[in-house]
Amino acid sequence: MKFRWTRMAGWVLAGGMAVSCLAFARPAKAQGTIKVGILHSLSGTMAISETTLKDTDLMLIDEQNKKGGLLGKKLVPVVVDPASNWPLFAEKAQELLEKDKVAVVFGCWTSVSRKSVLPVFEKDDGLLFYPVQYEGEESSRNVIYTGAAPNQQAIPAVDYLMNEVGVKRWVLEGTDYVYPRTTNKILEAYLRSKGVKPEDISVNYTPFGYSDWQARVAAIKKFGSAGKKTAVISTINGDANVPFYKELGNQKISAEDIPVMAFSVGEEELSGLDARPLVGHLAAWNYFESINTPENKAFIAKWHQYIKNNKRTVNDPMEASYIGFNLWVKAVQKAGTTDVDKVIAALPGIETPNLTGGMAKVLPDHHITKPVYVGEIRADGQFDVVWKTKGLVPGEAWSRYLPSDKYIVADWVKLKCGNYNTLTKKCSGQNYK
Amino acid sequence: MSKFLLRPGVQWLLVLLLLASRSAGPLYAQVPSPRDAAFLATLGQLRDASFPDKDNIVEQIARSGHPNVEAVLTAFLQDRLYFRNQDQKIFLLKPGEDEDASTYDLIDPITLQSAGSASSDGFTKIITNNHLRRVLQETLARFRLSSTDAAVRMKAVRDMERNLSDANAQLLQERSGVETNPEVKKEIGIALALAALNSPDAQARLSAVSTLRHSLRQNVLNRLDDLVQKSPDGSFAESDAGVRQAAADAVISIGRWRTFYSGIQTLFFGLSLGSVLVLIAIGLAITFGVMGVINMAHGELMMLGAYTTYVVQVAMPGHPETSILVAIPAAFLVAALAGILIERTVIRFLYGRPLETLLATFGVSLILQQLVRSIFTALNRSVATPDWMSGTLQLNDALSITYNRLYIVIFTLLVFGALLVVLKRTRLGLEIRAVSQNRSMAKAMGIRSEWVDALTFGLGSGIAGVAGVALSQLTNVNPNLGQSYIIDSFMVVVFGGVGNLWGAMVGGMSMGVVNELLEPYSGAVLAKIFVLVALILFIQSRPRGLFPPTGRASDNQ
Fold it and tell me: Which of B268, B474, B515 has the highest number of chain A CBs within 10 A, making it the mutation to test binding with A?
């Protein structure tokens, strides 16, 4: 009997506390908060890459709140887990926009996840900052692309190989999905426009998570032994890279003979692997952790402190997340509100510093200006920058090297169109193709 | 005299300076001689030079004749050349120094003695790129040609072959006279013959071609092929018809041999892929084939084996060579115990109900995956490859086999042999066969059939664990490892014939070879599809696989 009474007292007490908590919470709410959505996979195959970006976003929000928030309001992160499941990305995006009514969303990694959420963002008039390098051929009113378009990564990388290394023969090796296929289509058109003969280009695709590289690597070795300088352009995705590089090392293909230029291998990917056999192989990015600037050093120190691990690496998509967050903050400050339409109108022209020097500026096509670096892999899994573009490269949504997209431009300031054909003078709407 | 009076004072000042920069050592103890000063000045130019300029500076350094050229350029090649930001002075790092270390052990470029250590913050590395490293290798080859180590000389000759300038040819010619090692001498012969192809004397070119025709090297083939080609204006690159004919014959002969060896290589690739398939399937051939249990968690047992390899390696730091050998029995035990546990707690209640078994073991596989994800996180774990397993076995210039694949083929054969012995020659094997053929009769003979079931399942699972050790050398160790192989392993068992170890062996090997033969023509994606379609057609006509179970045993299957 006594027991029951105490239990009842407990319930009453708990209830009372809950009520009082609500009462206390209310004035805080009236003061106002801004909800920020974070849409990165925290489980499944992409969790490896995307969890880091979630942590970066949380760190940036935390830091902004310490500075007094935004427009005098506190930023509140709303983290959802789309679980590397593409249709779930759309559902979670809808949840963020319709239920939580977030002011902005930072998210997505793979192109297929971005394509999956696009209709949701356009229907509900949301704002998405997409922080990963991608294949281009897209420009949405509701998305700001802070990663590299092909002309900010792939094309300069090929220029480096062609002009500085003297490569004459090309292997385009990719994983079988949209990003490598579109990038390789652009690169093939670009190489052909530079007078490379079809027999000097070899294009090959392998499935996701491919591990039996022996025959492919032997074929690359054979293709590269024809007496002309050969390089591999690798758009191989995530997991398949480890066995690929291991096999290169085993078959003694050194970077001095056949360099491999990768677009998806960064500090994070190399941290799980013995990099000694890979020394000299290349990667093209808009950011490298090893670049020595005060901003970069401060960011790395801040990250290590936040994540409580001095061994954690910083990579390109993290910098793109950092830039995206700062651009949004500045646009909101300029617009004086978090209203999506006003922020989108304020965004073009906004500038924020890159971690490696120069300013990232939002362009009318919703891409940004970026520096491009080519790095060679060091034995410790970091990169030595061996080349960079003179100045910043403005992102181009539509590739000028694809015959089908040559005359298409995106401009959200004057033309209010992401897909404007300069020949027919028509905007074909947001169907992207 | 005044110099002597001054020096102690200067030294004291320097000592103070050095203490301030947290380094110590007799850095400025001597005034450099003019030659040293010139050497240092040339080295100093490397600091802000562009990559093309660095090429020239390296050449200048090489020609300076300074005794430290080899040591300094070797350090440059190995990324150990730094300058101090404070005074722009060049230093070498001690060999084996970690670039990320907080302090560097320094070596003076003139004395080659230790120059103390200092905080790494104050130093900037002079970076190299691929082209510069190639130049450095070629330059260093000239010094290494007289090394006492034959392997170093061999490498030096090969490096020089890439750039057969007159000076290099001259050096090789001189070395050829005193070279004692027959292998190196032969290599020099090839290099000199390649150089002689540029000779103005047709007779010299002809004899060079006849030397080269016995080589299988790709670069020799390319070079000879160039001689036969017509230039755009219709004239031949090689003016002499006799030499041209000899070169054309040589090209055909070398090309024929190279095609032959590349065929052998493809066959080996097929066998190595096949042996991976066999390795992942024979465990299943026991649990699925002999016991009739559809174990969807088979892949996860392989994953457990791979993670065991990782754990053993972490537990034995500094011994990657032996840890992999320790990992084999460890992985067997871990996977076997996990298998027995699964059998005792889940599967034994479901014998004779294949659908429920399938669902239950699928659930078990998800549990195991999440368990591993919780313990080790979803990140890839890197399992180091021991030195004896990396690199290639160069059989001749046209045929090389990677060691890791070779060992996996051998390992598969060993595991297969051991399994056959267990099944055919031991009491356990006899009991397993008895139970699988006729359970009630076996029981009547006094065999504890439940006990045998558990051990059989444990044996199959243990083999899966051992396969995981091999997979850890080929692919990523992560929680999804098993999923990517489970389909393949079922495919092999079904193709080979349920309940037959030899079927799994022949089935796996032939699928591997067919896959590798198709791949160069169809690409990896299509090759896999072709193999699957062929398999479906095959199963249509022979539903019981390659080696169907015969006799009374077949009635129970």
Answer: B474
> What are the pLDDT digits (tens) for B303-356?
999 999 999 999 988 888 899 999 999 999 999 999 999 999 999 898 888 889
Distances in Å between the Cα of A22 and the Cα atoms of A18, A30, A33, A102 are 6, 12, 16, 22
In this structure, the dihedral spanned by the alpha carbons of residues B265, B267, B273 and B274, taken in order and rounded to 10 degrees, is -160
**Contact B130/A43, CB-based, under 8 Å?**
no
Beta carbons of A206 and B385 less than 8 Å apart: no
Give the CA diameter of chain A: 93
Most A CBs within 10 Å, among B271, B472, B476, B519, to test the A interface: B476
Per-residue burial over B160-175, b if 16 or more Cβ lie within 10 Å, else e, is bbeebeeebbebbeeb
The 10s digit of each residue's pLDDT in B426-446 is 999 999 888 888 888 888 988
Residues in chain B closer than 8 A to A251 (CB atoms): 392, 400, 402
Which A positions 150-179 lie with beta carbon below 8 A of chain B?
Answer: 164-165, 176
Burial pattern A38-70, b for ≥16 Cβ within 10 A else e, equals bbbbbbbbbbbbbbbbbbbbebbbeebbeeebb
Q: Where in chain B is the domain with CATH 1.10.3470?
A: 264-556
β A426-427/A417-421 pair status: antiparallel
What span, in angstroms and rounded, lies between the C-alpha atoms of B431 and B443? 10
Backbone dihedral angles phi then psi of residue B81, each to the nearest 5 degrees = -105, 120
| C-alpha distance from A109 to closest chain B C-alpha (Å) | 17
For B218, which residue in chain A has the nearest alpha carbon?
A225
- Residues A53, A299, A83: CA angle, nearest 5 degrees: 5
Residue B525 pLDDT > 80, yes or no?
Answer: yes
Nearest by Cα to A278 from A208, A213, A211, A375: A375
What order do you get walking across the sheet with B123-125 strand by strand?
B114-119, B103-107, B90-93, B81-84, B123-125
Chain B residues touching residue A204 (CB < 8 angstroms): 523-524
Using a CB–CB cutoff of 8 Å, tell me whether A379 touches chain B.
yes
In this prediction the pTM is 0.81
* C-alpha closest to that of B405 among B267, B269, B303: B269
- What separation in angstroms does the CA of B97 have from each of A3, A277, B47? 69, 17, 21
> If we measure between CA atoms, which residue out of B271, B161, B176 comes closest to residue B222?
B161
**CATH top class, domain B264-556:** mainly alpha
CB contact under 8 A, A215 and B516: yes
ipTM score assigned to the predicted complex: 0.79
How close B7 comes to chain A (CA, Å)? 39
Query: Which of B43, B55, B61 shows the shortest CA–CA distance to B134?
Result: B55
A:102-131 residues touching chain B, CB 8 A cutoff: none
- Partners of residue A250 in chain B, C-beta under 8 Å: 390-392, 402-404
Q: What is the 3-state secondary structure (H, E, C) of B176-197?
A: HHHCCCHHHHHHHHHHHHHHHC
Q: Which pair of structure tokens corresponds to residue B469?
A: 């050790």
**According to the CATH classification, is domain A154-262 in 3.40.50.2300?**
yes
- Any chain B CB within 8 A of the CB of A214? yes
Task: State the DSSP H helix or E strand holding residue B133, giving kind and residue range, or none if neither.
Answer: helix B130-144
- Report the amino acid identity of residue B412: T
Residue B335: name the closest of B368, B362, B288, B292 by CA.
B368
Residue B25 has pLDDT above 50, yes or no: no
Residues from chain B contacting residue A379 (CB–CB below 8 Å): 79, 99
Residue B127 and residue A385: Cα distance in Å, rounded? Answer: 9
Average pLDDT over residues A398-424: 88
Residues of A in contact with B511 (CB under 8 A): none
Cβ contacts of B41 within 8 Å, gap of 6 or more? none
Looking at residue A96, what DSSP letter applies? Answer: I
